[in-house]
Write a structure and sequence with these properties.
Blueprint lengths: L1 H14 L3 H20 L14 H20 L1 H5 L5
Length: about 80
Amino acid sequence: MLIGILIWSFAHLIASGDLRSIMLFGTFGVYALINIIFSKKVLTTNNTTNYTLTKDIIVIIIGLFVYAIIVHFHQYIAGVSIY
C-alpha cells in the first residue's frame, strides 16, 4: 500500500509542478517513504487457505473496472482532465 502511495504521488508530481501540487503530493510521498523505511513489522500468519485462480481473476477485473471509472471521471473528481 505504501509503495502504491509513493508511485501515485511521484506520478502526480511529474504531471503537475505547481506549488500546491508539490506540497500535497510531496507530503504524501514523503510520508509513504518514511513509513516504509521505519516499519519493521514482520507479518506472520498460520492461515493455510488456498484461493483459486477464479477469485484472483475476479478481483483483477473489479480493480480494472474501478480504475476505468476513476480515469473516466477524474476531471469531475479532481478538477483536472487526464485526456
